[in-house]
Write a structure and sequence with these properties.
The chain is an alpha+beta fold. It folds into three domains: 120 residues, Butyryl-Coa Dehydrogenase, subunit A, domain 1 (Orthogonal Bundle), CATH 1.10.540; 110 residues, Butyryl-CoA Dehydrogenase, subunit A, domain 2, CATH 2.40.110.10; 119 residues, Butyryl-CoA Dehydrogenase, subunit A, domain 3 (Up-down Bundle). The protein is 39% helix and 11% strand. The chain has a four-stranded mixed sheet with strand order 1-4-5-8. Strand 2 and strand 3 form a beta hairpin. Helix 7 runs parallel beside helix 9 and helix 9 packs across helix 10. Bound molecules: flavin-adenine dinucleotide. Flavin-adenine dinucleotide binds next to strand 1 and helix 11.
């Protein structure tokens, strides 16, 4: 979720200037074989690097960004992401032959834990690094990989995800945006919505219907479309939090080269399913450290307040929920290492657990804050951390696949229940829509 733009005003989004490659940073993990490091050496090296680098121009970035606050210090966070990349701490999960670091699951987990513990800023490049990168590695042509992977890794190009449309959210197979091959390029026409970070993105991976008259999941293609062109209009959407992290995106004859289709033309559904299935995996551990920090903050305030048996019980329940989340995350990651393990519903189980827990935490924060929670800090709409938590966490059970969709996946994959009746004669099982 993510960032730095005009806050409320609809209209074409402000664009950041063209990006140049980051400088190399000394004292880094770049060039070091991660396979040669023990977990403890990896942890210590990273911890030291974060302590040494979250200083000077980056000192003020601790805790910046994240859900509901993506507008914070965007340019500085972009510079930080580039430093991280130049120092060899980005693209940890990508294989080395594709420019990644080939880190083990355990090293990735340590990275996210230490990163969150250091209160390092929310990343701005995660849609490219975590969603598109692995999909390019799986489906891209050698030319596409050469063209895009280095720019994602060095944070010189940012990406957004153009899947959802006004008539296609959970039911992604209803995509109507059209892609037409004409005169050596694709021409894209249609509307996307809820497109996170489109206002700062250089490129968009767009799911489009490229076979006229095709239905549902057939005839779709994944097109890689440049955002900085006359045929693309980005209109920020103002959220409950008062900020605008996502957008409406209008494609009006927008162009992209004929060879910038990811996977075979007409097989975009397969590519989209893969992309949406790229698990949060090790990132869950960083998320949980942030959750714990929010929880601890609420507990600290509650300790200073009046004794309330009902509130005591709710706080204790929240603590139990946090412990369950951690145990499940460890178990899911351990299972991921076992060949052939799992039902394919593990990510859905984690999503249901954390989204419900975090949403309830927002409500708990409001209860602990009491009447003060009802008043903004300053005019016109300055919220404190708990108010933002409460408001933004309403979205937790929607993005990345809504609760109902996740429960449908669990019912089918983990429990073998018969599928839901579908209005369509040839139903395609909708994957859970994802965002980083
Ligand atoms: C903060 C945020 C960021 C986002 N970022 C992006 C992005 O970058 N790119 C992108 O493409 N999309 C993005 N999305 C969109 C997100 O993927 C969709 O909101 C989500 O898939 C739900 O689709 P929808 O909003 O159209 O709701 P709908 O699909 O219309 O669903 C409405 C309600 O009906 C329920 N429902 C729908 N189908 C079923 C069913 N079969 N059974 C039971 N209940 C059902 C849903 O659970 C939901 O409660 C973002 C959303 C949010 C909130």
């Amino acid at each position: 979720m993510e960032l730095g733009q005009p806050t409320a005003v609809p209209g074409p989004a402000t664009r950041t200037p063209a990006r140049s490659a980051p400088a190399q940073v000394s004292g880094s993990a770049a060039g070091v074989s991660l396979a040669s490091l023990s977990d403890e050496e990896f942890r210590t090296g990273l911890r030291d690097w974060l302590a040494a680098n979250l200083t000077g121009e980056f000192a003020g970035l601790r805790g910046a960004g994240g859900p509901g606050r993506e507008q914070e210090a965007f340019d500085e966070r972009l510079a930080w992401d580039r430093r991280l990349s130049a120092a060899g701490w980005a693209t940890l999960s990508w294989p080395a032959e594709h420019g990644g670091r080939g880190a083990t699951i355990s090293q990735q987990m340590i990275f996210h834990e230490e990163y969150a513990r250091a209160d390092a800023p929310a990343r701005v490049s995660h849609l490219g690094e975590q969603l598109l990168g692995p999909t390019l590695i799986a489906f891209g042509t050698p030319e596409q990989r050469r063209r895009f992977l280095p720019a994602i890794a060095s944070v010189t190009e940012l990406w957004c995800q153009g899947f959802s449309e006004p008539g296609a959210g959970s039911d992604l197979a209803s995509i109507a945006t059209a892609g037409r091959l004409a005169g050596g390029h694709w021409e894209v026409t249609g509307q996307k919505v809820w497109t996170s970070l489109a206002h700062v993105a250089d490129w968009c991976f767009v799911l489009a219907r490229t076979e006229p008259g095709s239905r549902r999941s057939s005839g779709l293609s994944m097109l890689l479309v440049p955002m900085r062109q006359p045929g693309v209009t980005v209109r920020p959407i103002r959220q409950l939090t008062g900020t605008s992290e996502f957008n409406e995106v209008f494609f009006d004859g927008a162009r992209t080269d004929a060879d910038l289709v990811l996977g075979e033309p007409g097989e975009g559904w397969k590519v989209a399913r893969y992309l949406l299935g790229v698990e949060r995996g090790a990132a869950t551990f960083g998320q949980q450290i942030q959750f714990r920090r929010e929880f601890d903050d609420i507990v600290a305030r509650a300790r200073r307040g009046r004794s309330d048996p009902a509130l005591r019980e709710k706080i204790a329940r929240a603590w139990v929920g946090l412990e369950v989340l951690r145990a499940c995350a460890v178990d899911t990651l351990a299972a991921a290492d076992r060949p052939g393990a799992g039902t394919g519903a593990e990510a859905s189980v984690m999503k249901v657990l954390w989204a419900r827990w975090h949403k309830a935490l927002g409500e708990l924060a409001m209860e602990v804050a009491g009447a003060r929670a009802l008043v903004a800090r300053a005019e016109p709409y300055e919220l404190d951390a708990w108010q933002r938590l409460y408001l933004f966490s309403r979205a937790d059970t929607i993005y990345g696949g809504s609760d109902e969709i996740q429960l449908g996946i669990i019912a089918g994959r983990a429990l073998g229940l018969p599928p839901e009746p579908s209005p369509s004669p040839a139903p395609a099982q909708a994957p859970a829509q994802g965002r980083a």
